[in-house]
Each structure stands twice: as structure tokens, then as C-alpha cells.
Amino acid sequence: MSTDRDTDEGTGGATDAARGREGRVRWRKSAAVAVPAVLAVGAMAVVVAQGALAASFAVSGTSFQVSSSKLSSKGLASYVQTDRSVDGKGHPVALLGIGEATLNDICQAAEVDTPLGTVVFKLTAGGPAGQVTASNLVIDGEDLDGDATFGTAQIGRDASTLDRVDGVRGEPGKFGLQAGDIEVVGVKSHAWSATGGNFRLKGMRVSVGLDGKKCF
Q1: pLDDT tens digit string along 192-205?
Q2: Is the pLDDT reported for residue 12 higher than 60?
Q3: I want to staple 140 with a disulfide (CB 3.0 to 4.6 A). Which of 56, 128, 193, 215 is the partner?
Q4: Residues 6 or more apart from 198 whose CB is under 8 A from it?
Q5: Mean per-residue pLDDT for 83-97?
Q6: Measured CA distances, 83 to 77, 87, 174 (Å)
Q7: What is the C-alpha R_g of the chain?
Q8: In this structure, which long-range contacts are made by residues 114-118, counting pairs with CB atoms below 8 Å and at least 24 apart in sequence?
Q9: Distance CA 95, CA 97 (A)
Q10: Residue 55, class by beta-carbon neighbours within 10 Å (0-12 exposed, 13-18 middle, 19+ buried)?
């Protein structure tokens, strides 16, 4: 991650050696506020890569953007559920279970309020670095836009009987759908959570900034 900090503010008689160190690692003022969040996400990425992150947890009070130029999978299963934040507020979502997902690239961005103002926390991966892969990717989304091609689809199947994606099943009597091989081009989604086992994020980059751009 590469950001800028105003080296004139509060440095006074900084030595040449100190200036050299700052030249090698340049920080924005806003980054200092979000360092704990960046470290937390780094730790989360390691846990997710090990397949140890539970799919059920209290979500934050902020939804985030997820986008990809192309997503493909060997199966999809979906049903409606409610995510809850720590304050107990419910957020209705369409849970999308995607088995053995491959993405050309991925972008995740969220706006976070800080004492300095609203910053954009952004994570990107894939593209020139190679494809992003994940086993049993689960996205709790408010919406999903894109041009999709499905294999055999079953719409209206009881959510408790879904079997295209391991572990993705809803409550008995609830509406569900599933499909075989899928491909979605131009993926855009607003989500409350995303989890996956064996997540491989090639070329991962995390950035935080007051002037940061979101995914779309």
C-alpha cells in the first residue's frame, strides 16, 4: 500500500536519515486513522484463506460494494435471510452461495466515518496478477447486477433442500433457487458480508484515503 503524508507538519528539525525513511514509506494522514482496520482486514484475509472464518457473524452498520469484470462458478444457490448488526438491527439480504468461484478480478470498497471525515477503504485483487479463486464463496447482498448465463436452473425450490453448493441451505418452507454452471459479466453488488474458504487473492492491494474512489 502506498500513501502520502505531509512531512512538513510536526517534523521541525527532522534529520536527513528520517526524511529518507519517510521517502521510502509515505503515509497519508487519513491512513493513520485506519491502520487498525487495515491490520484487521489483513488478519481476516489470512483466516479466510485457511477456511476458518465462520459464515455467521454480526455485520457492521455499513454495506459495501463488490464488483468483478467476470465471475464463473460450478454452481449457485440462493435464498433470502436477515443479517443483523451488533445493535440488533436487521438487514434483509439475498444469500448467494457460489461454489468454486473464479473471478477475473475483484474490488471491494466501503465508506468509513473517521475523525478526519469519511474515508474509502478499498481492497482489490486479480487483473494482471492473475485470477481470484474461492471455494464456497457466500455473499449476503442487497442486489446483484450483471449479464448472466446459467446452466440448469431450479427456481422456487425449498431452501432447505438446496444442494448445488455445500452448506448453503435455508429454512424449510422458504423460497430458494439454484443453478448449475454460471457466468456473470460486469458484476456489481451492494453487500453486507462476504466469506469464502481457500480464498486466493493474487495481487491484493488495500488502500485508505479521504479522496479514495469506490469500485463503481
Answers
A1: 988 877 889 999 99
A2: no
A3: 193
A4: 49, 51, 133, 134, 135
A5: 88
A6: 17, 12, 16
A7: 20
A8: 114/30, 114/33, 114/34, 115/33, 116/29, 116/30, 116/33, 116/210, 117/30, 117/210, 118/210
A9: 6
A10: middle
